[in-house]
Design a protein that fits this description.
Largest sheet: 10 strands, mixed
Strand content: 5-15%
Oligomer: single chain
Distance between the termini: 8 Å
Structural class: alpha/beta
Radius of gyration: 23 Å
Number of strands: 12
Strand order of the largest sheet: 1-2-3-5-4-6-7-10-11-12
Helix content: 25-40%
């Protein structure tokens, strides 16, 4: 999830998803929901350790909106009200991505990061999407190994991959089967509209990152007359949900890898990986082959070639990837790590910080519920996954087999609803970095094309996942500020040149690690 600066404080206050007890489907509330649109939130201070202006409440929403008087689940919401009622425009709902990311903390973060002229116009509203965090969280009972879906394709291990995928689907069905069919993007969009109605707002403004861009796009199509100022940052292509969005990690890792080899070759004297892109590439693949034969031992962490390839996101940051590969090469050869690199940093870059994530499977359970339940386009035959993985391993050697290998969706129950068509005009603003590892540029362009009437702000040269306020130096911030302040879209698409980041200049910039929402495999 994006924007995690407040994580330790929020965890202490009991507000992060990892601190909330997980419920099976049978523990969800069964209270009637006929009056869910007429609820009055019982706002209260979220925590004594946090500002009094940061308030929380819990709503009841229908599990199945086709049966509004049936079973309900909890929806946790939060807010910081505008400090200038005279300038207040309305309510802005916030989503950090995922699927399954907690958004209760976002009003705190945005209130700190937004310019005063922007935040004065909005009550900032956070929420934990259905199934996640404090909103009647679900669990599949998955252990740490079962949560990892970065599985390289090899003919001799494909059978165990199939067993893993089937096991995950079966465990999710057993633990939360009566709830899973309703943990979908369309139902979360309905929850958003319930929040709008309960707050007494005629329209809703919105800022969503990564998966949150697809959620916002779906809302704009389901409730076009209630869509106000929408910013969709780091776009998911609606035409690629969801297998295609995982596969795009493989296709777009290849140009990022090529860009990295050029960067590293220009710094051959410093890093010693080769004095041409071809030489750097040969060094890398030689290291992968060597690690496959004899894993590199990093104080107990055994790094094989598949683990190196699975770190494909780091190659979108050449100034981080280059010292990482140099350090792995040194470790494989029994030499000390290069100056400035530590084992902690090497492990962080290899895993995208995933090792620090809590063991709870709540985020993973919501991820599969949404990714498998939003669309019926997942292949149902294991043979197709095997063919695709073998083919894409050759076509996209860095990550192709990981992306196309079998997933639990092959064994998921059929979705309750079809995916949302993008056929209504949407006057929204999309925002994109040129070098984004999780929602690559082609994905953001696909979202922009799908939403007729949208405008795109592209930060040329921009690195990282998440643009607006995530990178305070981004050239994209100014046009987004202007849109949120005035409500006027740019007359045409905007491409601005991002200033060179610390990573591009060659610093590791530990204050901005790989910004992957909830681990290496999330949006």
């Amino acid at each position: 999830m994006l924007l995690k600066r407040f994580a330790p404080l929020l965890a202490a206050a009991g507000l992060l998803a990892s601190t909330v007890p997980l419920l099976s489907a049978t523990q969800a509330s069964a209270a009637p929901a006929a009056d869910h649109l007429r609820q009055k939130p019982a706002w209260h201070r979220c925590s004594p350790e946090l500002p009094a202006s940061y308030e929380c409440a819990t709503l009841k929403v229908p599990l199945d909106y086709r049966r509004p008087d049936g079973r309900t689940i909890d929806l946790a919401i939060s807010r910081i009200k505008s400090e200038n009622p005279a300038k207040r425009h309305g309510a802005m709902l916030l989503n950090p991505g995922g699927p399954g990311g907690s958004g209760l903390d976002l009003p705190l973060m945005m209130h700190e990061a937004m310019p005063k002229e922007v935040r004065d116009q909005y009550d900032l509203i956070g929420f934990d999407p259905r199934g996640a965090g404090a909103s009647t969280p679900i669990t599949c009972g998955l252990d740490e190994a079962e949560q990892n879906f970065d599985r390289a394709y090899r003919p001799e291990t494909f059978g165990s991959d199939v067993t893993w995928a089937r096991t995950v689907a079966d465990k999710c069905r057993e633990k939360a089967g009566s709830v899973l069919p309703y943990i979908t993007t369309r139902n979360t969009a309905r929850d958003m509209d319930t929040i709008r109605a309960v707050l007494g707002e005629r329209k809703l403004s919105y800022l969503g990152y990564s998966y949150g861009t697809y959620l916002g796009a779906v809302y704009s199509q389901m409730f076009p007359d209630r869509t106000d100022r929408f910013v969709l940052d780091s776009g998911v292509d609606p035409q690629l949900i969801w297998r295609g969005m995982i596969q795009v990690w493989a296709t777009e890792a290849e140009p990022a890898f090529a860009r990295w080899t050029q960067w590293a070759a220009q710094r051959s004297a410093e890093y010693g990986l080769g004095d041409s892109p071809k030489a750097v590439s040969e060094t890398f693949w030689g290291l992968v082959a060597r690690a496959d034969k004899e894993p590199i031992d990093l104080e107990g962490l055994k790094v094989d070639g598949d683990m190196i390839r699975a770190a494909r996101g780091v190659f979108f940051y050449p100034a981080q990837a280059t010292p990482l590969v140099a350090a792995l090469k040194a470790a494989a050869e029994g030499r000390p790590l290069p100056e400035g690199m530590t084992l902690t940093e090497v492990k962080r870059l290899l895993t995208g910080g995933a090792a620090a994530e809590p063991a709870s499977d709540n985020g993973t359970a919501v991820f599969w519920a949404v990714v498998c339940g939003d669309t019926g386009s997942w292949p149902r035959y294991t043979e197709q996954y095997e063919r695709d993985a073998a083919k894409d391993k050759a076509r996209y050697p860095l990550y192709g087999d990981f992306a196309s290998n079998i997933k639990p969706c092959a064994f998921w129950d059929r979705p309750v609803e079809a995916a949302t068509p993008m056929n209504k005009k949407a006057n929204v603003l999309t925002v994109q970095n040129e070098w984004d590892s999780q929602t690559p540029l082609v994905s953001g362009q696909g979202l922009h094309r799908a939403l007729k009437g949208s405008r795109m702000v592209l930060a040329a040269g921009g690195e990282g996942h998440g643009v607006y306020l995530v990178d305070p130096t981004s050239c994209a911030n100014a046009p987004v500020h202007a849109y949120l302040t005035t409500g006027k879209l740019p007359a045409r698409d905007v491409t601005c040149q991002n200033p060179p980041s610390a990573q591009q200049r060659g610093a590791l910039a530990p204050s901005k690690p790989l910004p992957i929402p909830s681990g290496p495999g999330r949006f």
